[in-house]
């Protein structure tokens, strides 16, 4: 296995914030650690990057135990949420700065930085003042600065959280392209479930310092092992059938005016664009149902509904 994280543990005084964190990562895999604010994502990433010492556990990359190595000696590079750029340096100085620790001479470092900035779409801004860049451009500088170090593993801590919704989606695509281009292994931290599902090969869902479930995005979405995962990744209805509680996704309930297994009454609806979310009362519970906007039901209307298996 390319990367092995075993039983990482971290407490701040009496507060145990990461427990038994064990994860295997293949080369070129895109792994996302997903969880609510405060669940221990950043703490875990900092331990991997060498910015925090774990209380116990180990981290191996490419056969080498790096648990006790300083951050700058690890084969990792980190892109932080706030970018952590040097405000007194221009773009190329920011990107080439880290290379001096790799004993690369200044002219060569600038050449490497320039090439990376061109690759990453910042050709026009190579000599720009950092403070005059947009959020998206700063994000690219931060990425370029990490990538020039040629890390085996790139760590990204909520890197798009300061960007607007459209730019976030664009940056998601870009980061995947960068990953393919450089063949790099990435560990990405986010609290945004849609981002995690759309970008990752593997999603690791954390809850209160522990891994709740991990797997491919489709796997964790379709087969959530716990109510927490089901609820965190997407939305879920809890219904009671023959005395048994069952989870069903809003898109797996089919509405029909004429026929169906159950009858319900719509008490609210939200138009979401391609689909509409209906809120129903029924004998088997209160439900949210996502239906395509081709057939619109009205609040107060009684409708039949059936359940799909998945
Ligand atoms: N330096 C610190 N000293 C004490 N407690 C800390 C410290 N850093 C983090 N914590 C606590 O550890 C827990 C986990 O924090 P962490 O930043 O890892 O969570 P997170 O999942 O990344 O959250 P967020 O998405 O809000 O950044 C939180 O309860 C936090 O208050």
Automatic annotation (TrEMBL):
Pfam families: ABC_tran, TOBE_2. SMART domains: AAA. Keywords: ATP-binding, Nucleotide-binding, Transport. It is an enzyme of class 7 (translocase). It comes from the Bacteria. One of its GO terms (cellular component) is ATP-binding cassette (ABC) transporter complex. The keyword Transport applies. Its EC number is 7.6.2.9. GO terms for molecular function: ABC-type quaternary ammonium compound transporting activity; ATP binding; ATP hydrolysis activity. InterPro entries: AAA+_ATPase, ABC_SmlMolc_Importer, ABC_transporter-like_ATP-bd, ABC_transporter-like_CS, Mo/tungstate-bd_C_term_dom, P-loop_NTPase, Transp-assoc_OB_typ2. Residues 3-233 form the ABC transporter domain. This is ABC-type quaternary amine transporter. It comes from Soehngenia longivitae. The lineage of its organism: Bacteria, Bacillati, Bacillota, Tissierellia, Tissierellales.
